[in-house]
Amino acid sequence: MSVLCRFIRSRAHRLPIVNIARSIGGASTEYFAVTYEEHGDPMKVLEGKTLTFETDPSSLNSNEVYLRMLAAPINPADINMIQGVYPVKLTLPLIAGFDGIGEVLSVGSAVKSFQSGDWVVPNAVSRTSIGTWRTHTVCEEENLWKIPNDIPLLSAATLAVNPCTAYRMLTDFVDLGKGDVVIQNGSNSAVGQAVIQIAAAMGLQTVNIVRDRPNNEIIVKWLIDMGATHVITQEFAHSPEMKMLMGTMRQPKLALNCVGGKGIADILKYMERKSTMVTYGGMSKRPLMVPTGSFIFNDVRLRGFWMSQWNKEHVNSPERREMWHYLCGLVRKGRLFPPIYRTVPLEHFKDGIKRTMEPYTTQKQILVMDKSLL
Ligand SMILES: NC(=O)c1ccc[n+]([C@@H]2O[C@H](COP(=O)([O-])OP(=O)(O)OC[C@H]3O[C@@H](n4cnc5c(N)ncnc54)[C@H](OP(=O)(O)O)[C@@H]3O)[C@@H](O)[C@H]2O)c1
């Protein structure tokens, strides 16, 4: 499988399993999907199945779109959803996957926003409309968001969740000017890599904390090459040398927290007075340990961010169009690349799941339905 990083749940997700592929009027009446009927260990509860569409996709309802999925990353939220520990609870059985990209094959008579050949991602208006780990789907027009199809496919496949999250956190919480400093943990995550690249394009400096590991210099080099100003380990952040490093730059106005736990204190003590920490992930599975003094003497502001909620609140907003325009522009300029990745054929999804659940990989697993991506 080659190195590498695309989505949608339709009306068909609870349909009976069939064994023989067939097609009517040029549209496939069956599709392969990664499904689960109960929560638990993804390696045990996920199953690959051939499902059949409720109605023939060659005779779509007027508001429906028929798609082939191209690629879909495996994100921590997907794993948590399957495990049953994600805060959003959906009725089972389900098709897994929140993120990814599809290509429009045909549209119903009343569909105005899409045409054949367009690339689309989930619109996030309805969680029940998603389920991206599949080959084909039929879904309603309102559940799709069109994105440009002149950028590399794997960039497009990985933009909707992680780089959009990075972009919003860098623009919505604090006014940042050129030379200002942003500090983050989990910096080798897909979000962290997007933060580094977008911040560099904005002229910001970044201090990037990663977990220590053998051969850490490889991660350091990767992140520096992406535009990181400094890459340090959690141990360094806790050491007296950290004070010296932070003394060479402006005090951070913004901190981005992917991890939680007690390492938060090592970040907050270097932050500017009235600065903001935005929490978007909880990878350590530990609560935030915030020293009382950070509130009293530094008046620190603790905020949270959830991309799905932002999308719901800004479905057809100028801000959302502007964000996509900006991010696709960075991709075209060679300033924003997909996270370090590995492509995995959809039918080998367990291989991608296993790798995702291992620590210290720094490699986004991307399920691909289009074999030319392998
Ligand atoms: N709020 C939102 O809207 C939003 C949007 C996107 C993502 N997220 C969240 O952001 C986080 C990162 O997502 P992603 O797709 O970027 O992840 P990813 O690429 O899969 O990377 C996972 C990261 O978590 C780190 N990690 C794993 N276990 C850890 C532990 N016990 N302690 C400290 N670090 C640990 C990994 O570091 P190692 O290399 O050291 O293992 C890696 O940096 C997830 O929690 C995800 O749910 C939230």
UniProtKB/TrEMBL annotation:
Domain Enoyl reductase (ER): 48-367
Location of the protein in the cell: Mitochondrion
Gene Ontology terms: biological process: fatty acid biosynthetic process
Predominant cellular place of this UniProt entry's protein: mitochondrion
SMART domains membership: PKS_ER
EC number of the protein: 1.3.1.104
The keyword Nuclease belongs to this UniProt entry's keyword annotation: no
Catalytic reaction(s) noted: a 2,3-saturated acyl-[ACP] + NADP(+) = a (2E)-enoyl-[ACP] + NADPH + H(+)
GO MF entry, a single one: enoyl-[acyl-carrier-protein] reductase (NADPH) activity
InterPro entries: ADH-like_C, ADH-like_N, ER, GroES-like_sf, Mito_Enoyl-ACP_Reductase, NAD(P)-bd_dom_sf
Family to which the UniProt record says this protein belongs: Belongs to the zinc-containing alcohol dehydrogenase family. Quinone oxidoreductase subfamily.
PANTHER family named among the record's database cross-references: ENOYL-[ACYL-CARRIER-PROTEIN] REDUCTASE, MITOCHONDRIAL
Protein name: Enoyl-[acyl-carrier-protein] reductase, mitochondrial
Organism whose genome encodes this protein: Ridgeia piscesae (Tubeworm)
